[in-house]
Amino acid sequence: MLAAFYLLTIAGLCGSYDVLYYHIYKLRLYKQHDAMWENVTHAIRALLFAVMLLTVMHVRCTGWWWLVYPILLTIEVTNTMTDAILEPKTRKSMGGLPPVEYYLHIFLSIVTGAALASIIWGTYEMMWKEPSVSLQLLEGVPLIALPGAYFSVVVSAGMFVWELMGVRRLWREKQAKAAAS
After folding, report:
1. How far apart are CA 61 and CA 55, in angstroms?
2. 169 falls in which pLDDT band (50, 70, 90)?
3. Nearest alpha-carbon partner for 15 in 83, 92, 82
4. Please, which residues bridge with residue 132 across strands?
5. For the chain, what is the domain count?
6. What is the CB-side half-sphere exposure of residue 114 using CA atoms within 13 A?
7. Interacting residues of 170 by C-beta distance below 8 A, sequence separation 6+
8. Domain interval for residue 11
9. What secondary structure, in 3-state letters, does the chain show?
10. pLDDT digits over 35-86, tens only?
11. Contact assessment for residue 72 and residue 52, using Cβ atoms and an 8 Å cutoff
């Protein structure tokens, strides 16, 4: 699980750059009506990231509770695939996906996939123990890394709220336009 912690930390830093620079600053996806459903996937990803990092850092699931780990993995993979399917259509009116953002998405998919795989690999033996959920700090996490990790969770939660507000605004504009027609 320590590997998952570090991989998610890397994904959080790179993902923050992707969201802040490309999604918000450069492309302003929150204003693009074509990007409404892509913004939904981004909101889900922000929430999932916070949940996954907190889970890796603090939650130990054993027995049938162990299924929490593959369920989170399944939701993340499904959301990422949905985002990848939506992006070409969403970005078409913007000249396509910028090359650096495309490479960043590939890197983030690999790093996040490795983190998810290491979660399963690092917890698999816990599936055979008595069912329980316990909260404890992940063993081996350097105390110096905790503020950055918690900050990533707070930023991710903030991005979740930001994305939801953008989707809500786009939805209301779409409804108003439909009502005016």
Report:
1. 9
2. very high
3. 83
4. 62
5. 1
6. 14
7. 30, 31, 32, 33, 35, 36, 39
8. 2-180
9. CHHHHHHHHHHHHHHHHHHHHHHHHHCCHHHCHHHHHHHHHHHHHHHHHHHHHHHHHHEEEEHHHHHHHHHHHHHHHHHHHHHHHHHHHHHHCCCCCCHHHHHHHHHHHHHHHHHHHHHHHHHHHHHHCCCEEEECCCCCCCHHHHHHHHHHHHHHHHHHHHHHHHHHHHHHHHHHHHHHC
10. 999 999 999 999 999 999 999 999 999 999 999 999 998 999 999 999 999 9
11. yes
pTM (predicted TM-score): 0.91
Q: Who contacts 145 (Cβ-Cβ below 8 Å, separation ≥6)?
A: 5, 9
Between vectors from CA 148 to CA 146 and to CA 152, what angle results, nearest 5°? 115
